[in-house]
Design goal:
Layout lengths: L9 H33 L6 H31 L1 H35 L12 H23 L4 H18 L1 H16 L7 E3 L5 E7 L3 E6 L4 E5 H5 L4 E2 L9 E9 L5 H13 L11 E7 L4 E9 L5 H18 L20
Antiparallel strand pairs: 1-2, 1-5, 2-3, 3-4, 6-8, 7-8
């Protein structure tokens, strides 16, 4: 225990105070000089992100210098190798935590800036949480690994145990992991985004209300929310009605048929007038009437119109169908339906 007993010496204590105060002064001077120089450099730039990075960089540099000065003074004036053997890992761990916080905040600044930059496609407002979480995980995992090395803890056994545990967890939660991985790809690849109208493989159609890591939630036309696992969506063929070059406009198809012998010029004029006078139908692209096929009992047509949002497809279809039916009745244009004639060759014996 004699190696741990230290006689109190006022001169040594005074030297410690002087060194600590001197370290604080040096830290202030160094950070001030660095700040002034960097501020002059970033004045030439247009963006504000470099100013935010400089403000963020000030604290870790300042406290790194102070902690280094305190450690060196304790080692030289008081405890010597004891400080080196025991207190050095403590000081290093403190620095690792402090700089880890800095890098997490630094990554947040960069990703938020990239999300607001239109030129960078793979980082957007919707994928921003994914990149923030991933960067934080990477920084803290590396920090813990370095801390283990600082304290002399062998990582081999820990990594082997983590590998075995990872295999067990992978088999036990393979469906959950598949959903998580699919969620990552959906957030990065962005086949759809919140607010888009999509059609699933089973014909279910709705508006995307939330894209999570594990599931995607869709509100269908019945105002019911459907939760779909991301693994299902990741392996399915989807129709994104809000995508493509048309932007936010959406096509509505109104199929109808008229009897053979009808005046097709009049039919086309009637349905186009109905479309043009509908409040939901856009003027551009212009409505179109298309004669599709000679059906078994009717001339099959399609009225093509566009609406400003996919949410209005239902009400537009309803109003156009009503108007077409009423106008055809008024103009005595027959809407045929399938008929079957039954011929009885002979009556059964009584």
């Amino acid at each position: 225990m004699k190696a741990f007993i230290v006689d109190f010496d006022y001169d040594v204590f005074l030297q410690l105070v002087i060194i600590v105060l001197g370290t604080i002064v040096v830290a202030q001077i160094v950070t001030f000089v660095l700040t002034v120089i960097s501020k002059r450099i970033v004045r030439k730039t247009v963006t504000e992100i470099d100013d935010k990075i400089i403000d963020l960089f000030w604290n870790p540099v300042f406290y790194t210098i102070i902690l280094s000065g305190i450690y060196m003074s304790l080692r030289i004036l008081f405890f010597g190798e004891f400080v080196k053997g025991f207190s050095l890992p403590f000081f290093q761990t403190t620095l690792i935590v402090m700089w880890s916080v800095f890098f997490v905040k630094f990554a947040r600044l960069l990703f938020e800036y990239f999300a607001e930059t239109p030129k960078i496609k793979f980082i957007s407002v919707h994928t921003l949480p994914l990149f923030l979480n991933m960067s934080s995980i990477i920084v803290w995992v590396l920090s813990v690994y370095v801390m283990f090395g600082v304290w002399g803890i062998n990582m081999t056994a820990w990594l082997a145990s983590a590998g075995v545990a990872g295999i067990a967890i992978g088999f036990a939660a393979k469906d959950t992991l598949a959903n998580l991985i699919s969620g990552v790809f959906i957030l990065t690849d962005t086949p759809y985004k919140v607010g888009d109208w999509i059609v699933l493989d089973n014909g279910e159609r709705g508006e995307v209300t939330n894209i999570g890591i594990r599931t995607t939630r869709i509100k269908n036309t019945d105002d019911m929310e459907i939760t779909v696992p991301n693994a299902v969506i990741g392996s399915a063929t989807l129709i994104n009605e809000s995508g493509g070059e048309v932007g936010k406009t959406h096509r509505v198809r109104i199929p109808f048929g008229v009897a053979y012998g009808s005046d097709i010029d009049e039919v086309e004029k009637i349905v186009l007038d109905i479309a043009v006078n509908n409040d939901y139908v856009l003027k551009y692209p212009q409505p179109r009437a298309r004669f599709r096929v000679f059906g078994p009992s009717s001339l099959d047509y399609e009225l093509l119109v566009w609406v400003e949002s996919s949410a209005k497809k239902g009400i537009t279809t309803h109003e156009l169908n009503r108007a077409i039916y009423k106008k055809f009745n008024e103009k005595n244009i027959e809407i045929p339906f399938t008929k079957q004639d039954v011929y009885i060759k002979e009556m059964p014996d009584k």
